[in-house]
């Protein structure tokens, strides 16, 4: 994944690839990490179902190499991500 990409391919535990839409990315000075929030491509086309949003830490690759998505490790990180997501969603609603 490169910074600024709108779609990423995520590989699950079973090795299945899934194309996902990037919702937004942000960096945390507190944890010294970058984060990406994303959801499966096409999930926003079904209005009846709530979209399941996923989050991962993002570790940029070396020059010319793709970065790597890492699992979120602490409850403190999840709390910060949830707060960022809520702020993002509130701003999206205000813009409509």
From TrEMBL:
Pfam families: DUF1292 (PF06949)
Domain of life: Bacteria
Coiled coil: none
InterPro entries: UPF0473
PANTHER family: UPF0473 PROTEIN CBO2561/CLC_2432 (PTHR40066), UPF0473 PROTEIN CBO2561_CLC_2432 (PTHR40066:SF1)
Family: Belongs to the UPF0473 family.
Protein name (Swiss-Prot/TrEMBL): UPF0473 protein AAEO50_19275
């Amino acid at each position: 994944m490169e910074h600024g990409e709108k779609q990423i391919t995520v590989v699950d535990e079973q090795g299945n690839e899934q194309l996902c839409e990037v919702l937004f990315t942000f960096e945390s000075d507190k944890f010294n990490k970058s984060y990406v929030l994303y959801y499966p491509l096409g999930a926003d086309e079904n209005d009846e179902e709530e979209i399941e949003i996923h989050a991962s830490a993002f570790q940029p690759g070396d020059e010319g190499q793709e970065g790597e998505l890492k699992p979120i490790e602490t409850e403190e990180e999840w709390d910060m991500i949830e707060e960022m997501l809520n702020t993002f969603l509130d701003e999206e609603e205000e813009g409509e």
